[in-house]
Amino acid sequence: METTAAKTIRRFALPRLAAAALVTVTAVSISPAPARADTWPAKPVTLIVPYAAGGTVDKVARQIQEGLRKRLAQPVMIDNRAGAGGTIGTAQIARSAADGYTIGMVFDGFATESHIYPKLPYASQKDLTGVSYMVRSPMVLVVPASSPYKTLQDYVAAAKKPDAVSYASVGAGSSNQLVAELFHEAAGTSGTHTPYKGGGPAINDLLGGHVDSMIASLPLVMPYVRAGKLRALAVTAGQRDARLPGVPAVAESYKGFEAYSWVAMIAPAGTPPNVIGRLAAEVNATLRDPAIGKVLSDGGFDVIAGDSAQANKLIREESVRWGRLIKSRHIVIE
Question: For the residues 257-267, what does the mean pLDDT come to?
Answer without folding.
Answer: 98
